[in-house]
Amino acid sequence: MSDRPDRAAAGGEVRRGTRNGAVGLAGAAVNGLLGFVLTLVIVRGFGPTGSGAIFTAIGVVTIVGVLCCAGADTALVWSLPRRRLGPRGDAARLLPVALVPTLLGSTVVAVAGVALAGPLAPVLFDRPGGDGPALLRLAFATLPLTVAMTVLVAAVRAVRPVTAVVAVQYVLVPLARPLLVAAAVVGGAGVVLAFGGWLFPAALAVLACAAMLLGPLGLTSGAVLWPERADWRTFWGFALPRAASATIDASSLWLSVLLTTALAGQADAGVLGGVGRYVLAGLLVMQGLRVAVAPQLSRLLGQDRTVEAAEVYRRTTMMIIVLSWPAYLILGFFAPGFLSLFGPEFGAGATAMTVLAGAMMVNSGVGIVQTMLLMSGNSGKHLMAASTGLVLNVGLAVVLVPRHGVLGAAVAWTVGIVVENLLAARAARIAIGQPLLTGALLKAGALAGAGTLVLATLGATVAGRGVAGLALTVALLLVGCALLLLDRRVRRVVRAAAATLRPTPRDRQDEGSPDRAAVAGSGGTRGMR
């Protein structure tokens, strides 16, 4: 009898995580579609060389921007769910702790970057005296805006319902970018103005996020913004190790693009950029779920509710495997068909895309272990795993890219991805003290993978690995899913899953009450680790 409240609480947390995950998945689907449209607009509008220049500039923004955030975005997602919201809470104090250092630092970097754009351009771009210096100046000049967007989106993610961050991060920004870049293409503008179109939506996101934070943080009701000394120490003690690992995580594709540009040429970098966009699109399932459940995991782990946190992880990872593995198997089988949509020049990346699809199956197979590791406060262990992957990626790229071009970059990236994820999975298991990867997860992966493998082999055998084979395989997959629904056991599982999406009266009560009640009762920050 004594364990009934715990079971009820665990069930409520799983239902909450599932509902949030469903919203995150919907946002990820929209984001993935819009990201593909953006890539298509860029590569079709500017070809391998022009798209390589734009992808290189985006890579600079991504890498330098994440570095200037210094881990503050993840630190907000970790720390804000453990604080009290509202005008009498202590959550608002963390906003200046996160924003002031990052904005000052990014401003200094922006000034230096604009001044050094001329000497840096020949290192990153093929054509001396071309658009490289202008692209770099624009990238660095808007750096503080990019950093502000990243930090404020993270704050919204931590204190608002998941629909808020999905609306900004997965709909507003991804929708505006292809529209503005397409307008530049139609108007005959060059790569610099097109890159400006990619940057501009950050300003819209900053305004939207600032408005969303006013109420929850009590900024219009007299909330205290002056931090205490302990706020700085706790926050940046977590953030600084995360700063390096976040740079590695966010720059994985763009680092490979930059290395390929330097070691093999801008055209190869453009091909790798197109391949990478396809490969990373499959991770949007995991990213959507991570965005949805990370604050919940931080709250549970901050209250030492590790059993419930592990159950939320397992349910989330099950969804990731079932949805991601079929996508990556199809991506690997029909790489020539996918890349043909970009143009014949991109066909050289087919083998590289197949290799990377296998790496991403490992990445998605361990689920959100990196989020678990970070939300438990172990940013240092996460940095160790990410650093090991980075060293392997860069070291192998230097050896392989000059000889093998895009394929060499893909192999180097693959080794880094696999090693980083296996190390993070082991560290997360030790940190949480609960089993994470179970037999049920392995069974789900085996079933999803085997079924897709059979259908993909049939489609490729009958119609080849081009668009025709891809279309046939997708059609067979849809028919197979429909036939599965004829089985009563499958329908029962689907109905049970659908039931978790509907909040119970207790869930409504929990979600309507202050979400930080347990932390508030313990003194606000005392639950931090």
Automatic annotation (TrEMBL):
Topology within the bilayer: Multi-pass membrane protein
Span list, region Disordered: 502-529
Domain of life according to the entry: Bacteria
Cross-referenced InterPro entries: Poly_Biosynth_Transport
Chain segments annotated as transmembrane: 21-42, 54-80, 92-118, 138-159, 179-199, 205-226, 318-342, 348-371, 383-401, 407-428, 440-460, 466-486
GO CC annotation, single: plasma membrane
Keyword Transmembrane helix assigned: yes
PANTHER family: O-ANTIGEN TRANSPORTER-RELATED, PST FAMILY PREDICTED COLANIC ACID TRANSPORTER
Protein name: O-antigen/teichoic acid export membrane protein
Species per Swiss-Prot/TrEMBL record: Micromonospora sagamiensis
